[in-house]
Design the sequence.
């Protein structure tokens, strides 16, 4: 019998409305295809290795995928799946702009067979995560190595075997991320500007958005800020200024989801 | 192949060992999402997902099916996040990177409020200690059954319940504090 208490968003939950609202913000927060494309490229070596093993008849255990033709088809499908996001982005643009991608880390030129980077070592922290996982394992437990520099790399199959390969440290400085308070302040400040715009107070919205621009020049909500600012400027009759900003927005965010609607304001 | 994340985790009884390709394909989005929900910085997610799947690859041959495959992967992901945090890569960070995909012409208010709410929740979850955070994320957000949460975290079910209770209490208190601060002039 299931005695689990109701979850926050389930009927019978005693959670506050404030908490429910916060938890709702996690709905549909999975990664977009473009966000996974870099990971797919990195994992190519392992996945291809698994496919090779499968086609040699050594371990494709999933139901319904036995047989060389199906495996080959699966490999092809997966390969095009890796090519992923950029292709989807292009086709989305050609079909009315329903889906847009921006800030993609991955190269935009799709390639059906992405090249692997030269073999590099796996970070020792992977092993730490593995050895501590709560599961019965036949392999001996190795002592946990000291923390290693973090390296971005793809994973060729041969990098896994033999498991112990020399490290190729290439430490990259971690990008500075905003603090919690900074992030909250940033979004809240812009929310105030938007509410002013919604309330018909375009002048206040402009002032607040410009103050936001001064405080957070490279804000995570920069694009939204520009959209608010442009709309407010149009409402104030400052069309030239708004037009100038819109052109700049289109240059910086060529696929901005806002440009269609903002264009219609003029 | 749809990688769409699902909120509800379907029970998955694994009786045969799946291929790594299948495991990766079915769980890449899940691993990304749970690492993100556990407070891992967006800039590290790719690295960490890779770590998880390298771990999965190494151990898959020894997977005994004592738990579901997903529960097992959740366990590895939580451990990976915990190690990452212990190494000092996590300070007080929240995800403010923009999504790479946008639906055309999204209502600005929704976008902004959503980000605002998410930033708040991230901050609150970041304030939980590691054990409570893991239970809260796996039960409330990933919607695992409590017995699976306990399995993934390798703790007794009663301990998982206690941690959930404590986490909820702490989270509600933080929500109330935030609301009070906003009401203040």
Sequence:
């Amino acid at each position: 019998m299931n005695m689990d208490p109701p979850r926050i968003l389930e009927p019978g939950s005693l959670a506050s409305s404030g908490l429910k609202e916060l938890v709702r913000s996690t709905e549909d927060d999975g990664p977009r295809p473009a966000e996974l494309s870099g990971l797919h490229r990195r994992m190519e070596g392992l996945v291809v290795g698994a496919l090779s093993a499968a086609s040699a008849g050594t371990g494709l255990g999933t139901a319904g995928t036995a047989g060389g033709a199906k495996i080959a088809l699966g490999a092809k499908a997966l390969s095009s799946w890796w090519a992923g996001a950029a292709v989807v982005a292009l086709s989305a643009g050609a079909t009315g702009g329903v889906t847009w991608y921006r800030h993609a880390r991955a190269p935009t030129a799709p390639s059906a067979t992405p090249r692997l980077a030269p073999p590099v070592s796996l970070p020792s922290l992977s092993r730490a995560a593995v050895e501590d996982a709560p599961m019965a394992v036949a392999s001996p437990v190795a002592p946990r190595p000291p923390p290693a520099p973090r390296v971005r790399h793809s994973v060729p199959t041969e990098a896994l075997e033999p498991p112990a390969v020399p490290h190729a440290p290439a430490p990259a400085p971690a990008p500075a991320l905003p603090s919690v308070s900074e992030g909250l302040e940033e979004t809240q400040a812009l929310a105030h500007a938007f509410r002013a715009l919604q309330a018909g107070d375009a002048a206040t919205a402009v002032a607040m958005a410009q103050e936001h621009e001064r405080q957070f020049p490279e804000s995570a909500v920069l694009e939204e800020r520009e959209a608010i600012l442009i709309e407010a400027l149009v409402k104030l009759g400052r069309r030239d200024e708004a037009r100038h900003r819109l052109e700049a927005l289109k240059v910086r965010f060529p696929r901005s989801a806002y440009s269609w609607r903002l264009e219609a304001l003029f | 192949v749809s990688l769409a994340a699902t909120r509800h985790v379907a029970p998955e009884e694994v009786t045969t060992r799946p291929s790594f390709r299948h495991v990766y394909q079915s769980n890449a989005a899940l691993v990304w999402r749970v690492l993100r929900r556990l407070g891992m910085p967006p800039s590290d997610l790719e690295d960490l997902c890779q770590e998880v799947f390298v771990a999965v690859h190494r151990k898959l041959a020894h997977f005994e099916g004592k738990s579901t495959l997903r529960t097992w992967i959740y366990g590895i992901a939580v451990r990976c996040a915990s190690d990452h945090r212990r190494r000092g890569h996590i300070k007080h960070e929240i995800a403010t990177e923009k999504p790479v995909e946008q639906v055309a012409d999204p209502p600005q208010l929704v976008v902004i409020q959503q980000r605002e709410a998410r930033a708040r929740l991230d901050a609150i979850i970041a304030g939980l200690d590691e054990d409570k955070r893991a239970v809260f994320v796996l039960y409330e957000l990933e919607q695992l059954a409590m017995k699976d949460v306990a399995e993934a975290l390798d703790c007794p079910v009663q301990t998982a319940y206690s941690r959930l209770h404590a986490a909820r209490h702490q989270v509600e208190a933080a929500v109330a504090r935030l609301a009070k601060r906003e009401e203040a002039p």
